[in-house]
Design brief:
Length: 275
């Protein structure tokens, strides 16, 4: 494991922080491309990723602190303590504010963000894996079980490398979403599928993680996963029934976006999020 990737003038560049920075950059690049294909300004994609990242970290930290409220110490205020679903709530809240402020088409933006969000999560989990931050799973005798003796939270017992599981699953989910985006013209379907698939992934990986049960034998992430699955399935059912195509939904673009859309010589690209 490599909690510290390298040092520059005595400053340690940690794999955990580097992975989060890389995740944000990749998400901004992918979302910018998706915005261009949808006839929207790239700059707004970058703004959305920036503010969603900032408030995502704020939400993730607040959620983490609330989780550890009974035994809260000054140590919990620093370090790597962040909770994914708190980050998702904070990031989505910030994204909705940006979308409303710039009058962007909600379903189109949500669909465009699904794949960047998925891959960014996978990149972030690689940082957790490299740093050995304690998000690994239960002890195992399986051939791929790994020990993290030099991790931030060390263990010499082979455990499930759950961050690696999640990173691999993120790539698979992104592939499914990409295929779905090419085959549907209904706005909101891709984001609904993202909520369902990411919820299923996190629910399953929790079965080999070490989080404590919170309700009915389920951990907090599993409870949030169920909410994600139900909301995603409900969203998909609703938008399919409503049958609102992405092209019609684009009528809500902010002024100035039409000119950029008209310059795109590929009319079919307006109804696709990713190629």
């Amino acid at each position: 494991m490599r909690p510290v990737l390298f040092s520059i003038l005595g400053l340690d560049i940690q794999s955990y922080g580097a992975s989060k920075a890389l995740a944000a950059l990749v998400a901004a690049w992918l979302l910018g491309r998706a915005f261009h294909r949808a006839g929207l300004a790239k700059e707004r994609a970058h703004s959305l990723v920036f503010w969603a990242t900032i408030w995502g970290f704020v939400g993730a930290k607040i959620y983490y602190l609330l989780e550890h409220l009974p035994e809260l110490t000054w140590h919990h205020l620093g370090g790597m303590g962040f909770t994914w679903y708190g980050g998702l709530i904070g990031g989505i809240t910030a994204a909705v504010v940006i979308i409303r402020r710039h009058r962007l088409p909600l379903a189109t933006v949500a669909d465009a963000a699904a794949i960047p969000l998925t891959l960014a999560y996978g990149i972030g989990r690689l940082g957790c894996f490299l740093s050995g931050d304690g998000t690994y799973g239960k002890p195992t005798t399986l051939p791929w079980g790994m020990a993290f003796p030099h991790g931030v939270v060390p263990t010499t017992v082979p455990v499930h490398p759950t961050p690696l599981y999640e990173a691999i699953t993120a790539v698979l989910i992104a592939g499914v979403l990409w295929a779905l985006a090419r085959r549907t013209s209904v706005g909101g379907v891709v984001f609904g599928a993202y909520l369902v698939l990411s919820g299923i992934s996190r629910f399953l990986v929790e079965t080999v993680r070490i989080n404590q049960p919170a309700l009915l034998g389920l951990t907090q992430p599993q409870l949030w996963s169920i909410v994600s699955i139900l909301v995603g399935a409900g969203l998909m059912a609703w938008v399919v029934r409503a049958g609102i195509p992405r092209e019609a939904e684009r009528a809500g673009r902010a002024p100035g976006d039409d000119a950029q859309a008209d310059d795109d010589p590929r009319p079919e690209s307006r109804t696709e999020v990713f190629r």
